[in-house]
Amino acid sequence: MQVKKMMVRKLVTIPPQTSILNALKVMRDNSIRHLPVVDGGNLVGFVTEGDLRQASLLSMVDKVSTEDIMIKNPVTIAPNASLEEAAKLIYFHKIGGLPVVKGQKLVGIITIVDILQAFIQLMGILKSSSRLDLILGEKPHAFEEVSAIFQEHRAEIISVGMSNHKDRKKRIYYFRLEKCPLQPIVDSLKNKDYQVLSVTE
């Protein structure tokens, strides 16, 4: 999924000359924690609630503007980039959100919450579902065989996750299925020598 599918397009922004107290008011009034700083439609900086609150403690706060404390070269992402890339940038830079830019023009913002929402949608976590955790081992075409077992029992796969264990014998696959009786599926899997670790109906 691309960033542009999940980014916030209705943006709240401020110009560089905005005072610290006014910037905090904008955040409070709009219930946001990240604020792009824009000049002529172009992104010139980025401030967070933490940055502004820290600056507001200065005795000379009335003489300090957002321009003085903003991040002048914020980490950004393009609208056509993948959500995985956005998640990596947020994780590695330990930040809560990313301005989305096309050239220098600000076109959106994507936050941890937006990425989490996309993950929940993709994994079908909020749907009524059943889940099977199993080890496929090193059998050739194991995934295809397991999928065929699900199909035989008319169990629809919503999503599949996988642990990143290097040893295939210990790699766990997490199958989320549309709500269905699992015991007949478990019996079929065990008959084919697959190790079922967990069952959630």
Overall description:
With 201 residues, this protein is an alpha+beta fold. It has 2 domains: 3-119, CBS-domain (Roll); 124-200, Alpha-Beta Plaits, CATH 3.30.70. It is built from 8 helices and 8 strands. The chain has helices at residues 3-6, 20-30, 49-56, 66-69, 83-93, 112-123, 142-152, 183-191, and strands at 34-39, 42-48, 97-102, 105-111, 129-135, 157-162, 172-178, 195-200. Strands 6-7-5-8 form a 4-stranded antiparallel β-sheet, covered by helices on one side. The chain has a two-stranded antiparallel ribbon with strand order 1-2. α2 packs across α3. The two termini are 29 Å apart. The mean pLDDT is 89.
| Average of per-residue pLDDT values | 89
Q: Outline, from the CA principal axes? A: elongated
CATH architecture of the largest domain: Roll
Q: Looking at CATH, which topology of the largest domain would you report?
A: CBS-domain
Number of strands: 8
Q: Count every helix, treating DSSP H or I runs of 4 or more residues as helices.
A: 8
Main sheet attributes: strand count, strand direction, barrel closure: 4 strands, antiparallel
